[in-house]
Amino acid sequence: MKKTKTIETWSRSKIIGEDTWDITLFEHTEKGRNDLILPHKHDFYLIFFVEQGAGIHEIDFTRLEVQPFQIHFLRPQQVHYWKLSEDTVGHQLMFSTNTIHLMNRLSALPFFQMDVPPVLTLSPQHYASVLLELKKLQQLLTEEDAIGQEISVLQFFLLLKTIQRCYLQTYTKLESQVKDSKVQEFKALLELHFKTHNQVAFYAEKLHITPNYLNIRVKKVLGVSASHSIQQRVILEAERLLITTDLSIKEIAFELGFHDTGYFNHYFKKWRNKTPGQFRESYNIYNKAL
Fold first, then answer.
1. Per-residue pLDDT averaged across 90-114, rounded?
2. Residue 287, pLDDT score
3. How far apart are CA 99 and CA 37, in angstroms?
């Protein structure tokens, strides 16, 4: 049987060398690495706070220039790597999906949604206000008793909501997306079913609305139709599989619900102006200039 290369999924314990509680916070200069140049995924959420430094950080094939007073957001299963300057100073905040679920009754965090900017650049003053809440959390996380941990969770929520306010002040058009529960439900369903269901009607039925209304509503909030969102999610997964596995084009097509490799090639080229094979050849992630 053909041996398949699959991209590694890292846990928090792999990164810091020990098992931790659901929320992990550390200073980048103490436990972080500047040369995560092999692409990998996480099974947790990561927020990277940059106080000073430079370099590049690539998330799902989008390259970001690292600058001071930035906050970078990473969801579980996103492919990423970075190359940072030696003088990079900041913090890494890691937390489990269970921790996020505790916030279900609060408004959705916009920076962990699909198709939103994965980096927030702040003024020194606004970054200082976020850093203040971050330092409070760092202090509270040392508490070992039950009440102390509960207080640290509340401070964690306060930190994320402080970031959310700054994020929505910067990306003002995203506020309507966060508030629209149907669009949020559609995006959650899409993440679960995009490999097997590529018709708007399937998602509309799940949401108890008509396909036309779903397209209109998603277009109003996201700027693209529901059908476009479905197609883009399929293309993103195709890119991930092309770059991070040794699966053949035919195997990737089948994985994504295409039973005709020729049609998959045509579909991919329509969106990326390259065939899947050309994309794989042109995107040698391990040898790209950093």
1. 86
2. 46
3. 28
pLDDT for 289? 46
For the full predicted model, state whether its pTM sits above 0.85.
no
Provide the pLDDT for residue 281.
85
Q: How many residues does the chain have?
A: 290
* Residue 6 pLDDT grade (very low, low, confident, very high; cuts 50, 70, 90): low
Q: Which residues contact 7 (CB under 8 A, 6 or more apart)?
A: 39, 40, 41, 79, 240, 244, 245
- The residue written with tokens 């990473």 in the block is 74
Residue 290 pLDDT greater than 80, yes or no: no
Per residue, the 3-state secondary structure of the chain, as one string, reads CCCCCCCCEECHHHHHCCCCCCEEEEEHHHHCCCEEEEEEEECCEEEEEEEECCEEEEECCEEEEECCCEEEEECCCCCEEEEECCCCEEEEEEECHHHHHCCCCCCCCHHHCCCCCCEEECCHHHHHHHHHHHHHHHHHCCCCCHHHHHHHHHHHHHHHHHHHHHHHHHCHHHHHHHHCHHHHHHHHHHHHHCCCCCCHHHHHHHHCCCHHHHHHHHHHHHCCCHHHHHHHHHHHHHHHHHHHCCCCHHHHHHHCCCCCHHHHHHHHHHHHCCCHHHHHHHCCCCCCCC
Q: Examine the pLDDT at 89 and tell me if it is beyond 60.
A: yes
Euclidean distance between CA atoms 221 and 219, whole angstroms: 6
For residue 186, the number of C-alpha atoms closer than 13 Å in the C-beta half-sphere is 34
Average pLDDT score over the chain: 88
